[in-house]
Amino acid sequence: TDVSRIDAVFDLDGLLTPEERDWQQRARTFARERILPVIDRDFEQAHFRRELIGELGAAGFLGMHLQAYGCAGAGAVSYGLACLELEAGDSGWRTFVSVQGSLAMSAIAKYGSEEQKQQWLPRMATGDAVGCFALTEPQGGSDPAAMRTVARRDGDDWVLDGDKRWIGLASIADVAVVWARVDDPAYGEGARAVRGFLVPTSTPGFAATPIAGKLSMRASVQCDVSLEAVRLPADAILPGARGLSGPFGCLNEARYGIVWGAMGAARSCLEAAIERSTSREVFGRPIGAAQLTQAKLADMFVELEKGILLALHLGRLKERGALTPAQISVGKLNSVREALAIAHQARTILGGDGITDAFPVMRHAANLESVRTYEGTDEIHQLILGRALTDLDAF
Ligand code: TGC
Predict the structure, then answer these.
(1) Buried b (16+ CB within 10 A) or exposed e, 65-92
(2) Phi and psi for 70 in degrees, rounded to 5?
(3) Main EC class of this protein (predicted)?
(4) Relative to the CA of 132, which ligand 1 atom is closest?
(5) Catalytic site residue 375?
(6) What is the DSSP letter of 185?
(7) CA 251, CA 246: separation in Å to the nearest integer?
(8) Which phi and psi angles does 166 have, rounded to 5°?
(9) Is residue 28 a contact partner of residue 88, using CB atoms and an 8 Å limit?
(10) Non-local CB neighbours of 149 within 8 Å, separated by 6+ positions
């Protein structure tokens, strides 16, 4: 197959442990057997296939990089490889795994009390409970410091009011990790600190409405969320998160998964282009025998290879506890930007048929527009790197 052709030239396997190769193979098989046969129809019908959640849990992919509480405890590279293979299926399914594992479960694992961890993590690892992560607001996602959602004290209770937007899985979630300003000097570093709350989605006043009309990530769910006088017990607050470093700590995890995941979408596009290059004849010979086509394939392959090696480098740093947010920005910016370029170049090789669902390329290209925007836009990551290089803040 063309993926084994890419694997053969690249030979990544020699850099991986047997355990990492095993996780990769299992995720590749999952994508091939459970996602690819249905994804074109699901994408067209904007259908989120809920029944796969339990299967992803049983396979160990939910919170797979977390320790204990029913989680697989896999290494950062194994998790990244799983993200890559799932996103070679569809960005929507890698996003599901990211929102559940890297955002909602990570928030509970990093900042939750022992009771909160025991209550939620084992059920989330199996997929019996779904989580979402409510940070972004309708006025824009790039500046969480401008958050308007508030949590105020009423006796021992907390009462939350506000609106969130683009919240993945919110309408099917059992629990929402909601970030809100706390207007109480007793909490956080001074008044109005940002804190996290675990909100069972059955709580009166919590409402999630799927966003319609998306031309990207159609096989997954993103929602508007409204919080109207959502009353929570005192122990709903995440005790370990104070200030914006709380949600940013989770975004780091999700951005890391994207560094790998986007390369999966890119690989899928390159595979389609290679297949077409050898099977489609124009001017009396396979189009892959034309130098222009080979140059395109070579450039796509080089960027894929560089992107995966960068992801692997970041993964090894993460395993040593040495990965910095600026390094994650290098990876997120590069992977998604190059994956989009690869998708667009692959489309040119496919000719007119490239715009149909006979190939996965337009679906990946459309999905990657979302991936480029969430978890920090290209521009946000450029500015994070600009600040790291100059010590000057240009936000
Ligand atoms: P600033 O206000 O100065 O810093 C706030 C505090 O946060 C700390 N911090 C980080 N900590 C850990 N990891 C990081 N990556 C961090 N970045 C900042 C910072 O040290 C400070 O801590 P403290 O203790 O001193 O208070 O913020 P900044 O100037 O550092 O950051 C500005 C900027 C623009 C980089 C930041 O606001 C940013 O990254 N904006 C983009 C936000 C973003 O990615 N939003 C998209 C979220 S995607 C989403 O919510 C959807 S989830 C997916 C789904 O549901 O489908």
Answers:
(1) bbeebebbebbbbbbbbbbbbbbbbbbb
(2) 80, 5
(3) oxidoreductase
(4) 55
(5) yes
(6) T
(7) 9
(8) 65, 40
(9) yes
(10) 137, 160, 161, 162, 163, 164, 178, 179, 180, 181, 227
| Model ipTM value | 0.96
Report the pLDDT value the prediction gives residue 62, as an integer from 0 to 100.
Answer: 98
Which of ligand 1's atoms lies nearest the C-alpha of 376?
44
Q: Is 259 in the pocket of ligand 1 (CB under 6 A)?
A: no
Distance between Cα 251 and ligand 1 center (Å): 8
Q: In the predicted model, is pLDDT for residue 183 greater than 80?
A: no
Other Cβ atoms within 10 Å of 351 Cβ, number: 12
Q: Is the dihedral of CA 57, 62, 64, 70 positive or negative?
A: negative
Question: Closest Cα to residue 125, out of 101, 99, 94?
Answer: 101
Token digits of residue 34: 């459970």
Instruction: Tell how far the Cα of 377 is from the centroid of ligand 1, in angstroms.
Output: 12
CA angle (386, 192, 375) in 5-degree steps: 35
Q: Is 281 in the pocket of ligand 1 (CB under 6 A)?
A: no
Is the Cβ atom of 154 under 6 angstroms away from ligand 1? no
Select which of 253, 319, 375, 379 is catalytic. 375
